[in-house]
Amino acid sequence: MKESLLRLFEQATSLPWYAYVAAFIAMMLIFGKKKEWEYEAKLFQGENKGIKGELEIIKFKKADPEGILQGYFLAELYGKEVEIMLNDDVIQKIHIHQDGQRYDILYPRLERKTTDIYRPRQAIRFNVVRLWFDERTTPQNNDKVTIRANNEGIAFGQMLRD
């Protein structure tokens, strides 16, 4: 038994490096997440100020949509309720705590996720908020995206399929 394991180990270690790379890629293709769709919106603030952020919504098979809100304006939103609107319908509502280290998901109520989310230092430094959406959230091309804080429009953009 011990000799057969040693022989098997010797054969495995004698394989060239590209065999391991090929096996790793094959495992990723077989067991990796399969993406159904992905939409992205570049966010603008006011006239002629350039791109100030980005909203990305991704749907993987057998999972609810999730997203990332990234923007230079996030530091201004600490201590406020932030609404993410898609064609004038609220798809996400969060409250970012005053220090920016935590945020609460106010809408939609997701059963398997906690409502109080911790933001690591890297997320604060790179102005990123991770979002989870309801399964009914399905954006389309050219949908209007608006980010509002305390009923005031902060940023806007247009959804495009990525």
List keywords for this structure.
single chain, 162 residues, alpha+beta, Immunoglobulin-like, 2 domains, 10-stranded antiparallel β-sheet, elongated
Detailed description of the structure:
The protein is built from 3 helices and 10 strands; from the N terminus they run ααβββββββαβββ. It is α+β, with helices and mostly antiparallel strands. It folds into 2 domains: 2-31, no CATH class; 35-161, Immunoglobulin-like (Sandwich). It has a 10-stranded antiparallel beta sheet with strand order 7-6-5-4-9-10-1-2-3-8. Strand 1 and strand 2 form a beta hairpin. The longest helix has 15 residues, at 17-31. The radius of gyration is 21 Å and the shape is elongated. The model has no long low-confidence stretch (mean pLDDT 88).
Quick take:
It is built from three helices and ten strands, in the order H-H-E-E-E-E-E-E-E-H-E-E-E. It is an alpha+beta fold and 162 residues long. It folds into two domains: 2-31, no CATH class; 35-161, Immunoglobulin-like.
Work out the helicity level: 10-25%
Assign the structural class, choosing from mainly alpha, mainly beta, alpha/beta, alpha+beta, or little secondary structure.
alpha+beta
What is the mean pLDDT? Answer: 88
Q: Order of strands side by side in the largest beta sheet?
A: 7-6-5-4-9-10-1-2-3-8
What's the end-to-end separation, in Å? Answer: 53 Å
Quaternary status of these chains? Answer: single chain
CATH class of the largest domain: Mainly Beta
Instruction: Work out the strand percent.
Output: 35-45%
Spans where pLDDT lies below 50 across 5 or more residues: none
Query: What is the overall shape?
Result: elongated
Count of the domains: 2
Give the biggest beta sheet.
Answer: 10 strands, antiparallel
